[in-house]
Amino acid sequence: MNIISFNVNGIRAITAKSFLSDMQALNPDVICLQETKATVEQVKETLASITDYHIFANEAERKGYSGTAILTKSKPLSVRYDMGVSEHDHEGRIICAEYASFFLVTVYVPNSGSELARLGYRQQWDRDFLQYLKGLESQKPVLVCGDFNVAHRAIDLARPKENYNKAAGYMQEEIDGMDAFEQAGLLDTFRVLHPEGVKYSWWSYRAGARQNNIGWRIDYFLASKALMPAISSAEILNDVMGSDHCPVKVTLGL
Asked: What is the pLDDT along the chain (254 residues), one digit of tens a residue?
């Protein structure tokens, strides 16, 4: 089972580029999308030409903001939206698809903001989201993917010293949140399989960042320990363009 996660930074914008042909060439079993910036109906209309997939989408109350989607060739046993916490459930950030042997969750984790205005909220989100994931895991293993808006370790961004405790995405409070996921048994698949691998999944639109690979690894697949033996590869697809992020991918053999 090949699963791709991609922050598209606007589903309508990226489909005007090479997104559809890129996904056709990759031909994954599941595509998880974040930051669709569209309503459920707009997502389905925009992806109407993709006929091999069941499409599920979640939207924010605020138009043109946030939003997630799952495209899956195999129809899930069930699909649920949000985490059941009213404070968090109005931005369309979570979809959970249940398969026979695991839950697949796609998430667009809140950004702390350029002025760190949402850092406190982000910490509460991390705690509540972990509790939500552990609730799922009490039933069957979990694979969670998406834009976590944090570089976990110094190896995960090009300029750690310049950004540590100065910039959203590399604040100690955000790092602590990722530590908590790991300590709770949700493992970073890329880092498990590539302990010293230096690859990034997001680059600023500022001049030359992507060309010069001044990036951050903030898109992840985290897996329950019980799933790790089934994950044969974890990749970052740097050559796929169209967004300020690139897709990340795992291959799961169940």
From this structure: 999 999 999 999 999 999 999 999 999 999 999 999 999 999 999 999 999 999 999 999 999 999 999 999 999 999 999 999 999 999 999 999 999 999 999 999 999 998 999 999 999 999 999 999 999 999 999 999 999 999 999 999 999 999 999 999 999 999 999 999 999 999 999 999 999 999 999 999 988 999 999 999 999 999 999 999 999 999 999 999 999 999 999 999 97
What does DSSP say about strands 94-98 and 78-81: parallel, antiparallel, or unpaired? antiparallel
Fold of 2-252: Deoxyribonuclease I; Chain A (3.60.10)
From the list 22, 126, 147, 188, the catalytic residue is 147
**147 noted as active-site residue:** yes
The per-type count for the chain, helices as H runs and strands as E runs, is 7, 14
pTM of the model: 0.97
Which sequence spans correspond to the domains of the chain? Answer: 2-252
Contact status, residue 73 vs residue 55, Cβ threshold 8 Å? no
Catalytic residue among 53, 99, 108, 132: 108
**Do 181 and 130 meet the contact criterion of CB atoms below 8 Å apart?**
yes
Active site residue 108: yes
Q: Write out the two tokens for 210.
A: 């992507």
Distance between CA 76 and CA 34 in Å, rounded?
Answer: 19
- In angstroms, rounded to a whole number, what is the distance separating the alpha carbons of residues 32 and 146? 8
Strands 78-81 and 68-72: unpaired
Are the CB atoms for 141 and 103 separated by under 8 Å?
yes
